[in-house]
Design a protein that fits this description.
single chain, about 240 residues, alpha+beta, 7-stranded antiparallel β-sheet, 5-stranded antiparallel β-sheet, binds calcium ion
Length: about 240
């Protein structure tokens, strides 16, 4: 019985390996060691304080669950950028809707997303760098096939963005380097960067800069591999008895 339970637990872990990687961020006011400068924190902008980002993928999409400290149903503004370096070209350090952000090591693609409608709606654009200029790949108000946004967990502070792996040129085993930043409108900087545990800027007028990028490895299990692993485990179990 114990062996059976062990086998079940092992199978659960194998299945779990295909689930998301969680990248946690610091939070709270810079006055007490947090990563939101008190200039912003004291104005109650907790919907710009990134708490964590969970990344996962299936055969067709990579998903970013961006979770902030605040309630996204309780705010009527907030922008969330995902800067991505797929490695397909050198990328650009500037971009992301022309926000006042230095992406530090060059992004080849970015998602600009919003939670603007009193939390009742979410949308996103996907842009790609061709080596010389930014171009719009897709948006939730266009084909809505290469990038999608989900606001169903806004009350919990989570906005889900799905991006087509094909649009990013990513396949099994490829490593995506990325950073996530919260921001406002116009030429605003990134108020919070997932890549930084310290505050990214101390005023709307001052540029923010990415820290060390996070890395996610795309894992697309081959059809039936789960079942084969499971069978192998059971065969091994039988032999040991
Ligand atoms: Ca944060
Ligand atoms: Ca941060």
């Amino acid at each position: 019985m114990r062996k059976t339970l062990t086998a079940v637990a092992a199978l659960a872990m194998i299945a779990g390996a295909a689930h998301g990687d969680v990248y946690t961020d610091n939070s709270g006011s810079s006055d007490v060691g947090g990563d939101i400068h008190s200039f912003f924190f004291d104005q109650g902008f907790d919907h710009l304080d990134i708490a964590s980002v969970e990344v996962t993928n299936d055969a067709n999409f990579i998903y970013f669950d961006i979770s902030v400290v605040g309630d996204l149903d309780a705010t009527n503004w907030g922008k969330y950028l995902i800067g991505m370096d797929t490695g397909r070209n050198a990328g650009s350090n500037s971009g992301g809707w022309g926000r006042n952000i230095d992406w530090a090591s060059g992004i080849t693609d970015f998602v600009g997303s919003w939670a603007d409608d009193g939390g009742s709606g979410a949308g996103a654009e996907l842009h790609a760098w061709d080596g010389a200029a930014w171009g719009l790949t897709d948006a939730t108000y266009l084909a809505n096939t290469d990038v999608m946004a989900d606001d169903s967990n806004h009350a919990a502070g989570t906005q889900r963005i799905a991006v087509s792996l094909a649009a990013l040129g990513l396949g099994h085993g490829d490593v995506l380097l990325f950073d996530v930043a919260s921001t406002g409108g116009g030429f605003d900087p990134g108020v919070d960067h997932l890549s930084r545990a310290d505050f990214a800027t101390d005023d709307w007028a001052n540029q923010s800069m990415s820290g060390n990028y996070l890395a996610y490895t795309v894992n697309i299990p081959a059809p039936g591999s789960m079942a084969l692993l499971g069978l192998g485990g059971l065969v091994g179990l039988r032999r040991r008895r």
